[in-house]
Specification:
TIM Barrel, 3-stranded antiparallel β-sheet, 12 helices, monooxygenase, Propionate 3-nitronate monooxygenase
């Protein structure tokens, strides 16, 4: 596993919060951060990777998913008609192959190649490891963890219900469990210890605990759980000075309120600030990424800073993905956030 002084790693957060400046600041403070490339166009990915030449960092990609069900597609088309927006064309591959090529050709190759929504097969994982990168996979169940180990990953990131952003379920239609992080880590560790036909197969990769950790006491406790080598925090950095979090989302987080885990943001289960649309659409199906794309046309401008000046109904479709207890998130520099979490 990567050798860094900090017990806290900076989780990949797609959509803008993670910037090259944040990654460099985390490195300077003895931590390690991930560049999220899941929804980044390959050319933009190459530009971001070039900005990180000479630095330590990881990348995170969305693993390709199967097409959505016919029922989910019909629902999304009907919603597009109802809202008066164009039904989007989508790419279920998330440009994965091109992004892998961009990563391999980066001026400085990442130290870690990580995935959400799935895990590379064993041969691909081995090829990435031969290229000098550790392979990490995000899991949400013991079954996914066992499958990740069978594919030869180096580290397993255990993501629980309190986490902000998307749950990393390997199937878009899967309903994520709601176990607290402590319980899910224990289940994953026990399953890895008990499964396998040989002692070698029963080896347990290091675990990274992710989901809702907000202060040094919670981080310290998580590090005592079986198998946990590091913790991963994302939402804790959303208000950091170096974060690319939009003004409107900074304002929403500072205002506080309830967070919900729902498909109504994107079609995959994700946790974020509750909105009028999430309240009125509790039964959204697995229409990812279609729902995310069509709602994007209705969301408030990222530059909106004064929530009181928003247009009528504009905040009904706000897209502020954040974990539980947003009122506990503080600003400051990345170094200051890490200091608070590592005490």
């Amino acid at each position: 596993m990567i050798d860094v002084a900090s017990s806290v790693l900076v989780a990949p957060m797609a959509g803008g919060p993670i910037t090259p400046a944040l990654i460099k600041a985390a490195e300077a403070a003895g931590s390690f951060a991930f560049l999220p490339l899941g929804r980044v166009a390959p050319q933009r990915a190459r530009e971001l990777l070039a900005e990180l030449e000479g630095h330590r960092f990881g990348v995170n990609l969305f693993y390709p998913q199967e097409p959505i069900t016919e029922e989910a597609e019909q629902w999304a088309r009907a919603l597009a008609d109802e809202l008066g927006v164009e039904y989007p064309d989508v790419d279920y591959t998330f440009d994965y192959a091109e992004l892998v090529d961009a990563v391999l050709a980066a001026p400085t190759r990442p130290e870690v190649f990580s995935t959400m929504f799935g895990c590379p097969p064993a041969a691909e994982a081995a090829a990435l490891q031969d290229a000098g990168m550790e392979v990490w996979a995000t899991v949400t169940t013991p079954t996914e963890a066992i499958a990740a180990r069978e594919r030869g990953v180096d580290v397993i990131v255990v993501q629980a219900a309190a986490a902000g952003g998307h749950r990393g379920t390997w199937e878009v239609e899967a309903t994520p469990n709601e176990f607290p992080l402590r319980d899910l880590v224990a289940q994953v560790h026990a399953a890895l210890a008990e499964s396998g036909a040989s002692e070698e197969a029963k080896s347990i990769p290091p675990l990274v605990a992710a989901g809702g950790l907000r202060d040094a006491a919670e981080v310290a406790e998580a590090l005592t759980w079986p198998g946990v080598a590091k913790v991963s925090c994302g939402s804790a950095f959303l208000l950091a000075a170096e974060a690319g979090t939009s003004p409107v989302n900074r304002a929403l987080i500072r205002r506080g309120g309830n967070t919900v885990a729902t498909r109504a943001f994107t079609g995959r289960v994700a946790r974020g600030m509750e909105t009028a649309f999430t309240r009125t659409t509790p039964a959204a199906p697995g229409a990812y990424p279609h729902l995310n794309s069509l709602l994007g046309r209705l969301r408030p401008s990222a530059s909106l800073q004064d929530l009181g000046s928003s247009k009528p109904g504009e905040l009904d479709y706000a897209y502020c993905l954040v974990g539980v207890e947003p009122e506990r998130i503080s600003g400051g520099s990345v170094a200051e956030v890490l200091q608070r979490l590592n005490k």
